[in-house]
Amino acid sequence: MRGELQRIVDAVAAHAGRPALIEDRRQRVVVYSEQTGLTDEVRRASILRRQNAPEVVAWLRDLGIVDARGPVRTPARPELGLLPRLCVPVRHHELLLGYVWFIDPDATMTDVDLTATGLLKELSLALYRENLLGELAAQSETEAARTLLADSPDTRDQAARALLEAGMIAADGPRAALVARLVSPAHRQPDELARIALEQSLVAARRRAGIREALHLVRHDHGVLLLPAEPAAGRPAPEAAARQLDEDLQHVTRSLGSVERTVVGVGQARPRLADAVESYVEALHAARVGAQLPALGRVVFWSGLGSYRVLARLGDQQLTVADVHSGLARLLATPGSQVLLTTLERYLDQAGNAHATAARLRLHRTTLYYRLQRIEELAGTDLKDGDERLCLHLGLKLARLTGQHRPEE
């Protein structure tokens, strides 16, 4: 199939008298002719990475290429590294399949009539078959990846066997999960461009791990990467893969208004592909905790979450601060209590060491003791009671996780 597309793009380039590049409908590079003459940064990057940056995709779509029924001229955009172009949409009946792109730096190129040569029809049929086969393969892999994250052990075993037998995964072995989460501004959801950017980053991470060694899946609010837990020649360990994935996400989302920041959660390794769901659940919880607590950083490891590991799992059972300590819930609801809450958390973080707490908060110890006494009165608690301190500490961490307690770091 790629041989047929290569033949067509070479014929298109010869007919137009300049290099041509073909993208699918999501603007991922499918095939291109020999690149001679003047080119630009976007063309070089798209060939190298097989995809365009989200800001480039967004700008070109704003120019109307998705709805166009004929050639579209796109002007230069120096800040994006784009020279002027001529875009020819490729459709099969009314179904958009992709685009043919020509760089036209001096705007002297006449509209290319590919219909008269029959090349456009050939291209649309070839892209239609490529798209159909690709969609079937992608759907098969996606369904298997979804099944791997299901609850039933038998179902997961069947999915792992299917992936191995179909050659989608080269071999079984230890797997770890990464979960990439896009955190949006309040009252917004990541848009299509954000999800495209997320998938681009996951695919790049998968290529580094080895296409037949890893799996990826994009869900409605996060992306998943299952990759080998043991490093090999040319293949990063999960920790390094997570940090590189974070860097990729920073690069592709920095100009997207629907993404405020990103978080990558890292689960612990499991011995088999069929057991990777356990690592996925950990990575998902780690990413969710990181989304709520920016101070933890952009890459959050389940193994380093401490008490948040318990609270993240208990949160699935609708645990509230009042369930942990009703007095703390009252204190949280008291106007102007932020200073007392911060003091209490620092005191508990320091294992009840008044001297260390006063130093950490830069307080005179008399002021600290006054605040602790006030906390005891408002929360109806006794800070000399070990069980009370445990409940208060857990309650404060849960309040952070749910957004009820947002101290200034």
Structural features, described:
This protein is an alpha+beta fold and 409 residues long. The protein folds into three domains: 2-134, GAF domain (Beta-Lactamase); 173-305, Alpha-Beta Plaits, CATH 3.30.70; 321-401, Orthogonal Bundle (Arc Repressor Mutant, subunit A). The chain is 50% helix and 14% strand. It is built from 16 helices and ten strands. Strand 9 (261-266), helix 9 (276-292) and strand 10 (299-301) form a beta-alpha-beta unit. Helix 13 crosses helix 15 (365-379) and helix 13 crosses helix 16. The longest helix has 30 residues, at 119-148. The protein is elongated, with a radius of gyration of 27 Å. The chain starts with a helix and ends in an 8-residue tail after the last helix. The model has no long low-confidence stretch (mean pLDDT 85).
